[in-house]
Amino acid sequence: MSFINPHLISLNENYLFAEIARRAEAFSQENPGVRLLRLGIGDVTLPLAPAVVDALSRAAVEMGSADTFRGYAPYQGYPFLIDAILKTEYAPLGVTLHSDDIFVSDGAKSDTANIQELLSPDAKVAVCDPVYPVYVDSNLMAGRTIVHLPCRAETGFAPALPEIPVKAVYLCSPNNPTGVALTRAQLAEWVAWARAENAVIFYDAAYRTYVESPDAPRSIYEIDGAKEVALEFGSFSKSYGFTGLRCGWAVVPAENRWGLQKPWLRRVATKFNGVAYPVQRAAEAALLPEGHAQSLQNVRYYKENARLLLAALRDAGLTVFGGTDAPYLWVKCPDGLDSWTWFDRLLREKQIVTTPGEGFGACGAGYVRFSSLGGREDVAEAAARIGVQ
Ligand code: PLP
Predict the structure, then answer these.
(1) Mean pLDDT of 6-16
(2) CB–CB of 360/131 below 8 Å?
(3) For position 227, what pLDDT does the model report?
């Protein structure tokens, strides 16, 4: 019997971002003073909207006064924030949810990592390949068997339905890393599959505000019948600049066919004591008209970055996916190069730092991810350099 969880010990070292940093650092050491254009980042770079900062400051001041001080928050979040989520994130989509369906959290990373605690230890789960690694590692830590659903260019990086029975599937749309959003028809096929197979869909919508294709749903609940079989995760990070503040939400509808709302509340109440009051006020402000309009200006800025990169990469004759419904572009390596070789060439010849696709799974081999979440100056400079052969 080992002392430490053997599943935790047997996880592969996640060396992707450490290795990127090591190679970038080595280049900088050899080429002092040369500025690197960092298009590998998955973090936002623009500051919070002014209305959000105001709300955050006002709530911090409230915490310092006896009559407005707040202690522990309600487990599912303050009603003011839940109302704002229902009104701004769901009502405009024609999606009606109840306040009990929403669980305010410290972000979609925690939620997508924790949600597997609802499943039995022997449940098989399916994930896309390439994939946001949190879904994989959280299930491996729990000792589960994972089925990988290859996503390839031929199908526009949409996963095929699993060929063997699974109890759960993680879908991320718009997707990190491929930048591609599932269409309404594709998502409807997944919902029909889940209903027929009695499987749950964990739907990560962390990049929903980037969607512009009219055919790509922003919520899985836009699909009839989804409330019975799908849970959804939202995030304030990439839409409203909250990567450092931390706020998100999970939707566990009352209509869920396995009655998951009650056990999820039980689990949340045991392991989580809520999101800080000032952060929940800031999140509310990001959803009220003024803060929402200001925050979405930032999303438009990143989307314009993506448009510049997309145009430059296509003009250079490269095959590019994503970039219209997400801040990521998934680019096929030219001349049959592997991901790390092209990564090195981009670093050495153009001083552009990207993310090698194979870091997101075996099917990411031969691709590189460009992020549009950086500053315009770097993006414009990178776009210009990509054009120079
Ligand atoms: N889900 C996906 C697909 C992501 O790419 C990320 C962040 O990069 C997250 C979730 C994390 O979101 P949060 O900052 O809300 O934890």
Answers:
(1) 82
(2) yes
(3) 98
143: left (phi over 0), alpha (psi -120 to 50) or beta: left
The answer to whether the CB of 204 is under 6 A from ligand 1 is yes
DSSP letter for 331, please.
E
Atom of ligand 1 nearest to the CA of 242: 14
Closest Cα to atom 5 of ligand 1: 176
* Mutation test residue for ligand 1: of 109, 249, 371, the one with most atoms within 8 Å of CB: 109
Question: What is the spatial distance between Cα 235 and Cα 245, in angstroms, rounded to a whole number?
Answer: 11
Residue of 104, 17, 6, 40 lying closest to 346 (CA atoms): 40
User: Tens digits of per-residue pLDDT, 215-228?
Assistant: 999 999 999 999 99
Which residues, 6 or more positions from 268, have their beta carbon under 8 angstroms from its beta carbon? 75, 76, 103, 105
pLDDT digits (tens, 9 = 90+) for 56-105: 999 999 999 999 999 999 999 999 999 999 999 999 999 999 999 999 99
CB of 44 shorter than 6 A to ligand 1: no
Q: Using CB atoms within 10 A of its CB, is residue 29 exposed (0-12), middle (13-18) or buried (19+)?
A: exposed
Q: Is the pTM of this model over 0.90?
A: yes
Query: Which regions of the chain does DSSP assign to beta strands (E)?
Result: 37-38, 102-105, 125-129, 146-150, 168-172, 200-204, 230-235, 248-251, 320-322, 328-332, 352-353, 355-356, 367-371
Is there an atom of ligand 1 within 6 Å of 237 CB? yes
Residues of the chain by 3-state class (helix, strand, coil), percent to 5: 45, 15, 40
Distance of alpha carbon 360 from alpha carbon 1, whole angstroms: 32
Distance of CA 15 to the CA centre of its chain: 20
Burial category of 214 from C-beta neighbours within 10 Å (exposed 0-12, middle 13-18, buried 19 and up): exposed
CA–CA separation, 38 and 335 (whole Å): 23
Would the CB of 132 count as within 6 Å of ligand 1?
yes
* Each residue's pLDDT tens digit, 330-376: 999 999 999 999 999 999 999 999 999 999 999 999 999 999 999 99
Q: What is the mean pLDDT of the chain?
A: 96
Residue 251 φ then ψ, to 5°: -110, 120
* Count of Cβ atoms closer than 10 Å to residue 36 Cβ: 17
247 Cα: distance to centroid of ligand 1 (angstroms): 11
pLDDT of residue 17: 86
Reported as half-sphere exposure (CB side, CA atoms, 13 A), residue 110 has a value of 19
